[in-house]
Amino acid sequence: MITALSSFRRHMSPIGHEVRRLGLRMIGTVLTALVLLVVIGPVPAARALDIRTLTSPQGIPFWLVQVSELPVVTVDFAFAGGTRIEPAAKAGAATLASGLLVEGAGDMDGPAFQDALAARAVEFSTGVDRDAFSGSFRSLATEAEEAAKLVGLALSAPRFDADDIERDRRQLLVSLARSAENPQAIASRSLLAGLFPNDAYGRDTDGTPETVAALTREDLAAYVSRQFTRNRLTLGVVGDITPEAAGRVVDLAFAGLPAGDGRPKTDPVSPSFFGETVVDRPIPQTIITFALPGILRSDPDWFPAFVMNHILGGGTFTARLFREVRETRGLAYSVGTTLYPLDRAGLLYGYAATRNDRARETVQVIREQIARFAEEGPTEAELAGAKKYLTGSFPLSLDGSGAVAGLLVTMQIHHLPPGYLDDRSSLIEAVTADDVKRVAKRLLDIDKLSVVMVGQPADGAGSAAPAAARISENGARSTAPNSIQ
């Protein structure tokens, strides 16, 4: 199910293999029962969070929420950039570097570095997506400064030893080979490649077998030296820690990084909507992904669009697409939509899975429901239900210090004020049916609906869209898709 938070926080997009924390590495021994309780334990509800905006002694800004019930500290961080700052010929460098950060730093090789983390029960993870290189570390409050020193060493002096590079390269190549045969991965990758044919957003975040095979230690070092700079950094700290101690932790982890030459450009990029494409695969069901114009998080119409998406296909049993496609007609095993706000473009992303002989009918019903929503807008009952769900479910998503720390980072990335959480429910409640209908007419342009079907959808009655391009198993396109700007 797509939650309210998943639409709000970039790193939880439902395009899982595309925006997941790639190369995630969790390091450390099994924590004590107390620490495990903290990791999964509750934190104050969203409305009760006291967010403090602070600056470390070395001048690094960060947000802090003090939670003193249990003695743990979590630091979540993101460096603006991600895979979109990779040169196309070096695609995969960010993913490979992400996994290697825990394989040794400074004068400690991989085993020594991991032993140092384990000795202090430090949990450290990193990952990368299209817009950011992100990570987090968590420890007992008494070990927070030592944890920060280790993380700072990993970021400022990663070893990238030859044996480690080759081992992780082999693992990444295996992952790419599996992804090339995974229908869900193919569908999502093909959709984004079609929407962004000449932009980094259209590239696989893991790179290609050719680019990964050619990566050198120098390529990895060049990527991290460009990526890990203080002026690209966003930070959230949550836990049993004073502002003064939090400032020391921040400096120990990040003050050793160079200032950098500025954040990456965020010039908008317009998706190239392309009609329908079939990727031929001999499988018994068809995986469907589709996209329409979306919205940036900074757009004044964000909340009407947020409510619109929930009513249309937002992952609950009451969504129109779920009712019409699955419940009423029994066409699909799963169906839904979500807003996908990238830094430079916005999409309304959708998915479905069904039998090959019902794929085109499924697409046609999706098309009809989108067109109907654009024309009629929501009912008052749908609007009331969406508001109740979106306001009521959000605090439940903040079920641990990691979730709160991540939320602090996301709020800063999207330039939301610390008081946003106090206003969020009222902003949703203020959305009217006319607001939703207006935004639906703006975004749900059926002529721009782009669809990828992976499988062997039967020909015949079905979608009224332009004739689909078909891609054979070797990936060669037999006809070019229609590009709609």
UniProtKB/TrEMBL annotation:
InterPro entries: Metalloenz_LuxS/M16, MPP/UQCRC_Complex, Peptidase_M16_C. Residues 460-485 are annotated as: Disordered. It holds the Pfam family Peptidase_M16_C. Residues 215-389 form the Peptidase M16 C-terminal domain. Residues 475-485 have a biased composition (Polar residues). GO terms for molecular function: metal ion binding. It comes from the Bacteria. Residues 460-469 have a biased composition (Low complexity). This is Peptidase M16. It comes from Tistrella mobilis. The lineage of its organism: Bacteria, Pseudomonadati, Pseudomonadota, Alphaproteobacteria, Geminicoccales.
